[in-house]
Amino acid sequence: MKQVDRRNFLKLAGVGTAVAAAALLPGTGLLSWVTGDVLKFRAVIGLPKKPLPAYASLVIEGNVDLDTRTGLITRSLIAGAPGATSNIAFPGTTRSIQVTDVRRSHDTVEIIGLADSTETLAKGESREVTISINRSLGTATAAFFGHEVMLAVD
Amino acid sequence: MSDHLDAPGAVVITDPTDPTEVLAHAGSPMGDPSTDITDVYAFQKPTDGRKTVLVLAVNPLAPALAKSFEHGASYEINVDTNGDARADRRFIIRFSPVEDGQQLATVRLQVLAGREEEDDDDEGAKIINEAPVSFGTTPRITTHGHYKFFAGLRSDPFFFDLLGFLDEFDFSFGDFFAKLNVFGIVLEVPNRALGRNPKTAIWGRTKIRKNGQLVNDDRVGRAGINTVFNHGQDKNIFNNAEPSQDRTALTSDGTTTFLKSFTDTLVTLSNLGGHIGYTASEAAGIAAVLLPDVLTYDYSMPANYAMLNGRRLQDDVIDISLNLVTKGLLTGDNVGPHTDYLSTFPFLGTPH
User: How close, in Å, is residue B193 to chain A by CA atoms?
Assistant: First the structure.
């Protein structure tokens, strides 16, 4: 297997093809208003948190239509620290989230979604997902299993 | 994640003590999974103390990321026989290209007599020739004289609550590696193949071919050292250095040695949350034990990781390490050894 192949595709051991396809990493991750009211974002945090060296990156990214309040978000736990991430997702940690509602207030966009029902959830994890994005601070807040984490928006 | 998915890309390096040299040539932060070392084990054969079992596990999440061993790469188990953290003996395992679904392995024992060789990796006595790699569930074992060899897909012997580690040490998720596989390279050798002095030091090394040249890829001695202690580019620098350079090599800031960096990390991690941890002096003493990153192994005695003597499959290296690194602040991750280890060669469990 050539290395170039591995770098081009997110490898999701033990995860279905549909989820794998949804979890393909985009080339850019800017928090930006693209066409109309579509919010496209990518947020990352290294885990474990400091002072330990980051071993993995929690990546949340997606496209959300703020007008229709729909969209698709992917949450993945990727091998490698932020800035040095691989394309390898840890098996069983990727979630495909359908957006069910969006709430906007000033600089904050709160996205509510539902994780794909075919995915097996971990202990302490809810199928209902809330991601709060603060545009001025450039942060996103979301739950990582049992604890809330603050991610930096690329 | 003893060292799972922590390998660097190919790095051509002429002076591992010069971090600018490393950074200038650093490739992908994640290397080839087939040469990504996950763990190294060394223990007496359970039924015969005159023999040693050496295990080099690679390719985390196998076979999802790589379906075969890398032809052209060099998989090595190094043995230091005189305490200078330099390889005096080296088991070199090479693999053929995959043809008709088959891959063959050759193992050589190179006796270096204290010198570091870079270009003569094809030298050494051939102790295993054209051994078939196992891609299925039944292990294909090759025996030649006093040597026994296996290479192929097996159950990952490592156990750890990885998600708990990432989720603020909430160790309640269970063993992340319970259903995962690796590629195992297992050698049973007579103790004398490790040299006359029973007090040895063992480490695994992989090299990949870059522009026709073998370059360092990954290196592992004890469990999780690089993962826990080194940040960012320091992981790559550490992987590329040789154990004899571990204490004096500089981290990516260009001024701090790895020994100092390890010392600082031990002080920080053991003093979290008001816990009374190590003093700088105590931490320096422990860092000097952890470096060089080799698996000290006295083949005249049964292995026990907690006693700094080799590593058995069932040794709870995470509990031991958490206790040590945090000075008892964290005592364990609440998961124990797998139940699928075999009592006979190749000892690694049947793949999932």
Answer: 34
